[in-house]
Fold LPS-assembly protein LptD.
Amino acid sequence: MRVHQSPPFHLTILKLSLAVLPCFVAAQAIAQTSDQPEPPIFIESDEASAQAGQYTEAKGNVVINRDTLEVHSDWAKYNLISDTVHAGNKVVMTKDGDTLTGTRLDMSVDTREGELEQATYLMGQGLARGEAVKVLFEGKDKYRIQSGSMTTCTPEQNSWALHAREMDLDYTQNYGQAWHGWLEFQSVPVFYYPWVDFPLDGGRKTGFLMPNVAYSSTTGLELTVPFYWNIAPNFDATITPSYFGERGLMLGGEFRYLQPSFGGVIRAEGIQDKESETNRYSILFQHSQQLADRLRLDINYQRVSDDHYFVDFGDRLSVASQVNLPQEAILSYSGSNWSTYLRAQQYQTLQNTSSPITPPYSRLPQWYFSYNPDLGGGTQTSITGEFTRFRSDTQNQGDRSWIYPTVSLPWANSYSFITPKIGVNATYYSNESASGQDLGTQSRVLPIASVNSGLFFEREGTLLGSNVVQTLEPQLYYLYIPFKDQSKLPNYDSGNTDLSWSQLFAENKFSGNDRINDANQVTLALNTRLFDDDSGVERFYAGIGQRFYLSQPKVELNGTAASSNQYNSASDFLLMMGGNLPYDLRFNYTLQQDLSNGTTQRSDLNLNWSPGEYKTINARYAVNRLTHIEQGSLSGQWPLGAGWYGVASYTHSFIDNQSLESLAGLEYNGGCWALRLAAQRYVTTNSEYKTNYFILLELGGLAGIGMNPISTLRQSIPGYADTYTSPKLR
């Protein structure tokens, strides 16, 4: 039976199948064996004819729909028995954001297998396009392109293309492969490849990664060709052979693993350095594991072959400035109101011959605990303690135990608070020489009492036409600790701390536990903050504070201060302020001033102007008379026009009258590709300059070629924003 209708014509193939009962019964049986029956196919055309249960032919403005697949053509024939579509003259296929056009289509609808001749295609919702003599469909979201090309550029731009005699695009695995082709950039062939594979979404896939090319003043030209091994969804490895022009061949590797209860990374690299004629290496092992519900293990082990390894092979200032490499394991447990950990810790100290440092003590082991019992009555109770065995090959060593129970009674309402607190710190030492000779025992017991109090006021008002809320927060803190001579006690981990806002209200001005200052002092401070009444955003803050001594502090880090009637009755004056100013300006400023002689001990001013996207300018001036530092820095990122952006950073030491770090670079966003150029010069720990050069070519949707300077730019330029994001094709 043949059916004819004049346009417009609309057929539902499933309804046609009902005309022939045997065919319907067979189709129904198949549908019942499947969890989800196949959706019907709809055909629209100017004219059509059908043989019930066998095929349908359509001509003129043909549109075929099934689920999310849509085919437009001049003519089409659908075979119900083989579930195939044949279409011709001009074919346009769309499926889940992919569009293919060609002259003739032969395709199995159910299996998505077939071919399209003289094809052009848009994939990844238009993010990738190309053309081919023939496109073969090899299943759902799988394509084989014969004599074709692929790019993420628009037809008007067409800056680059990946050509191949044959290319596979597998969107189920999100990777592609190409054979016997070449990469063309700006109409110039860049290189030929017999075979290459690449991710289509930035995902993980075994294979060679794009090579990295860089240059450093200490290692020369660097070429790295990484190989990535996707072992399993939760295991992978990267093998990284690198060639340094002035150093030789380095072999490196990284193994990462992740399980529900543990994960970590192992990283190692080694080189037979032809300049120093020594074997040099670097090792890193980091592991975290949840052994039980509240029991956790953390391991961090780092080691290098020599003191100058990071100076020669580190690619950033932060890496090259590392001094103490941790080698530690921590076993920790957290209870409902208590916690504890057991740690074994030592360091590899990288020495600088011009300014050697004393290596920190090893803690072999350290046991710490904290307990917060609930005694009721509104009290807060804390008991903390520690036992540590300090070890050194060159200094006196020993064991230290301390315990510090405290009780406080906080009280607060809507406009005030007061918290009295008392505690006792007891410390016991068992000392010996570096060779193990017994040096006796020592102890120290100190009561500690404090009262912290404050008020809170606020008022509403207007500022620059906006409703604001201003707060005023005075605070008073009293601390008493009696004097005890500690000059003969060992010092394993104590040091001086900078005066900061939090330090004004701290019990101890020293870090660590070997020195506890004596105190009979009052801290006075005043805070004010300005909030936008509508959004709650803080617009401005300011605070002043100072510590006043009712008696002379005597405990010093390396001894005891001599008693004197002429002593500073107050600490340095501390000022801090910051906030958002009009015209997209932001600032923050801290000042530590010695009012007794009018000298500035420490100041830090930061300014930022960010008027728009990819526009930021930073300026900083920092002075620290205590550590003999006076530095200034400028940095910024700014669009230059026509897709170009400039980046720069400069830090200068006024005391040494030399540059500490300088960086300059250019970035270009070409829409479907990007170019990044940067050069960085900085002073290393051995007071020598090192220069690194970065160049990176990014092709949209593919990996970049070269050395990426992004991490360096973000570290050197506060507020830096990436000017190009490579598209994900799926």
Remarks:
- Helices lie at 13-17, 21-32, 309-313, 317-320, 710-716.
- The two ends are 45 Å apart (CA to CA).
- The chain has five helices and 49 strands.
